[in-house]
Each structure stands twice: as C-alpha cells, then as structure tokens.
Amino acid sequence: MHKVELTCTCCPLGCLLTATLENNQVITVTGNSCKIGREYAKEECIHPTRLLTSTIPVINGILPRVAVKTAKPIPKEMIMPCMEAIKKLKVRAPINLGDIICKDLAHTGISLIATQSVSKTP
Q1: 25-48 pLDDT, tens per residue?
Q2: Is the alpha carbon torsion for 54, 56, 62, 63 positive or negative?
Q3: Within 10 A of 54 (CB to CB), how many other CB atoms are there?
Q4: What is the pTM of this model?
Q5: Which one, of 61, 52, 74, 17, lies nearest residue 3 by Cα?
Q6: Contact (CB, 8 A) for 31 and 16
Q7: Number of C-alpha atoms within 13 angstroms, CB side, residue 38?
Q8: CA nearest neighbour of 21 among 35, 3, 43
Q9: CB 30 within 8 A of CB 6
Q10: Blockwise average pLDDT, block size 10, the chain, 122 residues
Q11: What is the pLDDT of residue 24?
C-alpha cells in the first residue's frame, strides 16, 4: 500500500488530495471537497491524461504559426510521441477555427484541431 499526494485541478479550490493505492487500485481519497476531486484522483493515479496544446507552421498565412490542441485529453505517456508528430506538420492557409489538422495524432485515435483562424496572405 502506498500514498500519492496531488493537487486537484478540476476547479479553483485546488484541493490537496491524498490517494491510497493497493495493487494499482485507488482504495481511498481524502482531502477532496467534492465528488469530482475523488474521480480526478482516481484517474490521475491509474490512467493520467492531458490536453495537449502547441503550434504548427503555416504556409502563406498572415501569421507564421497556428495554435492547435488535441480534441480531447491524451494518455500522459503519449505526450512525447504526439509532440514528435506535431513537429512534422505544416498547414497551408487559410485555416479556420476548429479545422481538423490531423485526424489520428500519433495513432491515439484523437484529432488535432486548430484553435484559431489564420487567413491567407494577400
């Protein structure tokens, strides 16, 4: 049995949580002010995920880069493979907010989408 201390990021309270694990299972969570904090601790200890944000180069755009993010959180262990895949991408303007830049980023099954619009240079 071991304990993991973490800070909940689900709301501005930032509760200090302590999760007790046994055989890779969360047995108890303390310090949470709500049910969401308990669920956050369980997921963070067993299968942590992150929303990944970055930028990629734009060809013929009024901006040199476009901001992008994963459509949903990816497994934490996939951050570096996803960043390697993102480094290889380029897009051609125009780009619209919400455009899918890559349908299956690093074989995660998760799309990479534009979080801003970039017009084509005149």
Answers
A1: 999 999 999 999 999 999 999 999
A2: positive
A3: 17
A4: 0.81
A5: 17
A6: yes
A7: 7
A8: 3
A9: no
A10: 93 94 94 92 94 98 98 97 98 98 97 98 92
A11: 87
